């Protein structure tokens, strides 16, 4: 550290780097130990970074990189959508349902890319920018399931009527993408999701994850 540098800024940037290197977030205590500073300093750093949406804390109190990091670079968010679109188009056409990429934004799920099928007579209207609680809908529940993965977890989540009456959803989480929590899924007007859809959204989620690495 030299006279020309800021210790607080340096610590804040180190916090962001530490959070970007983990898929599961870090607690205040873990950050305190890694930075070699007391918990009060960490709380202040996180509070400041949260104000700028660069960091978010989940319901369990673990700090994670926030979507504000993506907004710092104007081209980053479009690039995320662009990287996901081929897999989403293939998924939408194959299943005949609206496909989407959803990312975590605070305590909400945010649809950042949506592709509707071209050959169906009708489908669910689902728009980029749509938000909903993480604990409602297949997209959010798939993300929560990935945080607490159980042995009997099939790798995808199915829901019915949680966000729109008569609509069913299927989603699988993005895995192995550092600093990004999200899911890929479909939503359709049906009483139940066909059996093959679960495996298909898992394949699409893997394709999107590979494109984002």
TrEMBL record:
Residues 6-67 form the HTH iclR-type domain. Residues 68-213 form the IclR-ED domain. Keywords: DNA-binding, Transcription, Transcription regulation. This is Helix-turn-helix domain-containing protein.
């Amino acid at each position: 550290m030299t006279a020309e540098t800021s210790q607080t800024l340096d610590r804040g940037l180190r916090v962001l780097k530490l959070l970007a290197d983990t898929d599961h977030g870090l607690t205040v205590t873990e950050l305190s130990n890694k930075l070699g500073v007391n918990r009060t300093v960490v709380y202040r750093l996180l509070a400041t970074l949260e104000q700028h949406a660069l960091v978010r804390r989940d319901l369990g109190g673990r700090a994670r990189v926030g979507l504000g990091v993506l907004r710092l670079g104007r081209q980053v968010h479009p690039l995320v959508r662009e990287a996901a679109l081929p897999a989403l188009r293939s998924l939408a056409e194959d299943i005949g349902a609206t496909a989407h990429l959803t990312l975590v934004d605070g305590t909400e799920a945010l649809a950042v890319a949506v592709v509707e099928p071209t050959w169906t007579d009708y489908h669910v209207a689902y728009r980029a920018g749509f938000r909903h609680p993480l604990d409602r809908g297949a997209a959010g529940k798939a993300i929560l399931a990935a945080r607490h993965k159980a042995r009997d977890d099939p790798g995808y989540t199915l829901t019915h009527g949680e966000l729109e009456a008569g609509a069913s959803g299927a989603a699988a989480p993005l895995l192995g993408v550092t600093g990004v929590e999200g899911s890929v899924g479909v939503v359709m007007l049906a009483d139940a999701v066909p059996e093959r859809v679960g495996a298909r959204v898992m394949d699409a989620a893997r394709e999107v994850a590979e494109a984002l690495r």
